[in-house]
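User: For a reading group we're discussing how well predicted structures match intuition. Take Nitrite reductase small subunit NirD. Before you show the prediction, I'll give you the sequence so everyone sees exactly what went in.
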Amino acid sequence: MTIEDTWINICQVDDIPLLGSRLIERASGNIAVFRTADDTVFALLDRCPHKAGPLSQGIVHGQSVTCPLHSWQIDLSSGEAKAPDVGCARHFPVKVESGHVFLALT
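Assistant: Thanks. Here is the predicted 3D structure of Nitrite reductase small subunit NirD, as structure tokens, for the group to look at:
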């Protein structure tokens, strides 16, 4: 199976609050889908690498989200914590086509 076979239409871009997120619930771990000020969309596992805080409840700024528990800043494009913190939240591929957001569960 290739990534082209795994794309799932999850919502429209406008369904995600600007500078916010939408939560995709699943048994193996929830996914937070974020929208930045310039309508770029990212998806991360909804667990901060520090203490598993819900990233979906964090503050989106630029291309980062700040965890609501201990203010770790996580890069939305990679899931990497920004220095001096170290750790990584799992990143999921997303694409936007004709206003629809597609998520790849690879």
